[in-house]
Design goal:
alpha/beta, Glutamine Phosphoribosylpyrophosphate, subunit 1, domain 1, Rossmann fold, 3 domains, six-stranded antiparallel sheet, 20 helices, 24 strands, about 35% helix, binds 5-amino-5-deoxy-1-O-phosphono-D-mannitol
């Protein structure tokens, strides 16, 4: 969480910092700040959004040729101006301040704070970041230069973080460091830059250098240098590849849409088509899609353990049904934040599958590490960000090619994860000789049809808008599903609560009479996912139980589900039962419902309160 950008150029860099912060705001948005070198350090900080910072910039006519900036998601200390970044520390009186912005958590901040307090450093904020500032200042007092002081300081810091640092006595220069949180350099013709995410720098350059764990870099207008301090302080420069970013600015612009969530919902047919492109082109399914070693590893795989959080966890829950039914592979799905603190029994032949849109989620990364340390031999990442930490930590990988997902509520990442996991289940089925060639052809044909099926599902939006008006005045909602549509109900409930703030719970419909039925009355809308599958008759009985108790039913049925509309039973019919693809298709109306309810309620769709896109802290 939190976004960092730094810039040093031949022209005023404040517009670049500001535009970069707007691009990074999805990472955290409770306060924002910047510091620029202009006859000393000029700092502006504000609670609230980057637009508030913009107002301050206009008011103070802030400008400069170098600066660092930050948008925050509070971890240590409430959102306030005092806690907003950058944080200062003086190291030898007047005009010798340093300023620090930081993303991540310093786990040993209390120990270091105590030591620095004993050395008379005064702490003004409640943040762990201020510890970094004072620690670097302390090392500067030992007559080190800023770069060396940063190298020395980060050797003491524990946790996952990225930082950018400026020294008042060195305008036109800044230092960055990364350890566990993303950070990259942008090399422009007019200057050099650093940011948490490439999208913040596309405005100035496509030439990017992705920093690795332990890298510390110094930048001025014309040059940059990187050393790696993972093994302690060093002066040896390391070379990192310069990548040309393939991100187009259209991918990160809103275009004709009102919100990124809306854009991302409607991008799903294309996102899924991109994700499946290689399969659809060759018309057959091959393990190589998951990596060069995939066939060997898959042949040794007896079970699967899926680790993920939030929406990605829901994708894993759907995958369990596919893996068991299609491939006959037993599968457990674990919430990463829970798994990492249990004593599970590891099995070297259980393939660990970590699912994450961002590839930065701290709990998922830690759970994967933990699984490996317990003895799981092989791992596979399903991830949307090619340069993420997760991608580098697994033996196998499959990139969902959804394009940047900016709305905090995950939509296209979910459906592309589902498409990838379906592919994984079918690949394992093939390798285990559970797939006849006729069956394989049918599945490839179904996958080929998926983008069109999603396009059709999006056409029900006008009907969803009518439902959304009814939901907007409600305080609670229940979501029901059975079988592999139960996790889809969970995802629908998560979307609704996340962006509309309506309390929503999902239940496996068979569980209703074991407790939650007590909640049902005319004020409790009950959304049911009712595909025409083998469990439909069971689900219909569950729906009767709701109807008989005065519950208002909102049923997402298939065209052939044969559920009649009646008083208190609202039906939206999708296409005919889509077999394996059904959970992916039934996701669309639930996303649209959450989106339109949020619009009705006037909430901030793309930046729901208290949340951030990439959860890089525990
Ligand atoms: O980037 P990840 O997929 O690892 O993120 C996991 C969750 O934080 C994420 O899915 C979250 O639940 C979404 N905001 C839900 O819309």
């Amino acid at each position: 969480m939190c976004g960092i950008i730094g810039a040093v150029a031949k022209d005023n860099i404040v517009p670049v910092l500001l535009e970069g912060l707007l691009r990074l705001e999805y990472r955290g948005y409770d306060s924002a700040g910047l510091v620029v070198a202009n006859y000393g350090l000029q700092r502006l900080r504000t609670i609230g959004r980057v637009t508030e910072l913009d107002k301050l910039i206009v008011k103070h006519k802030t400008n400069g040729l170098s600066g660092i900036a930050h948008t925050r998601w509070a971890t240590h200390g409430a959102p306030s101006e005092r806690n907003a970044h950058p944080h200062y520390s003086d190291y030898s009186g007047q005009d010798s301040k340093i300023a620090v912005v930081h993303n991540g958590i310093i786990e040993n901040h209390e120990v270091i704070r105590k030591r620095l307090q004993e050395l008379d450093f005064k702490f003004i904020s409640d943040t762990d970041t201020e510890v970094i500032a004072h620690l670097i200042a302390f090392n500067l007092r030992q007559a080190l230069n800023l770069f060396d002081a940063v190298c020395l300081s980060i050797a003491e810091l524990q946790g996952a973080y990225a930082v950018a640092v400026m020294d008042e006595t060195k305008p036109g220069y800044f230092v960055v460091a990364r350890n566990g949180a993303p950070l990259l350099l942008g090399l422009g013709t007019n200057g050099n830059y650093a940011a948490s995410d490439a999208s913040a720098l596309l405005q100035v350059t496509k030439n990017m250098v992705y920093l690795e764990e332990g890298d510390v870099a110094e930048l001025d207008c014309d040059s940059y240098r990187i050393v790696n301090c993972l093994q302690g302080k060093t002066t040896e420069t390391v070379q990192r590849t310069v990548h040309t970013s393939k991100l187009s600015s259209a991918a990160i612009d809103l275009g004709p849409y009102a919100h990124f969530m809306q854009k991302e919902i409607f991008e799903q047919p294309g996102a899924v088509a991109n994700t499946l492109e290689m399969v659809l082109n060759v018309q057959s399914i091959s393990p190589i899609l998951f990596g060069n070693n995939a066939e060997k590893i898959f042949l040794q795989t007896r079970n699967i353990l899926i680790l993920a959080c939030g929406t990605s966890y829901h994708a894993g829950l759907v995958a369990r049904y596919w893996l068991e039914t299609n491939a006959g592979v037993s599968c457990t799905v674990e919430i990463a934040s829970e798994y990492r603190y249990r004593d599970p029994i590891a099995d070297p032949e259980t393939l660990v599958v970590a699912i994450s849109q961002s590839g930065e989620t701290a709990d998922t990364l830690a759970a994967l590490e933990y699984a490996k340390s317990l003895g799981h031999r092989y791992s596979l990442a399903i991830c949307n960000v090619a340069e993420s930490a997760l991608i580098r930590q697994t033996d196998l990988r499959f990139l969902t090619r959804a394009g940047p997902e900016i709305g905090v509520a995950s939509t296209k990442a979910f459906t592309t994860q589902l498409a990838s996991l379906l592919l994984l289940s079918v690949t394992l089925a093939k390798i285990r000789h559970k797939l006849s060639s006729g069956h394989e052809d049918k599945i490839v044909a179904a996958l080929r049809h998926l983008p069109t099926a999603l396009q059709l599902a999006l056409q029900i939006e006008p009907q969803i808008k009518i439902w959304a008006k009814k939901f907007a005045s409600k305080h609670h909602a229940l979501f029901l599903g059975r079988g592999l549509h139960y996790p889809i109900a969970m995802e629908g409930a998560l979307k609704l609560k996340e962006i509309s703030y309506i309390h929503a719970e999902a239940y496996a419909a068979g569980e209703l009479k074991h407790g939650p039925l007590a909640l049902v009355d005319s004020d409790m809308p009950v959304v049911a996912i009712a595909p025409n599958d083998l469990l439909l008759s069971k689900l219909k009985s569950n729906l009767q139980e709701v109807h008989a108790r005065g519950g208002e039913l909102y049923v997402l049925a298939d065209a052939d589900s044969c559920i009649p509309q009646s008083d208190g039973v609202h039906i939206i019919r999708l296409v005919e039962y889509a077999g394996l693809l059904s959970p992916i298709i039934h996701t669309i109306p639930l996303q649209l419902l959450a989106y339109h309810v949020a619009l009705q309620k006037g909430t901030d769709v793309d930046k729901p309160r208290n949340l951030a896109k990439a959860v890089t802290v525990e």
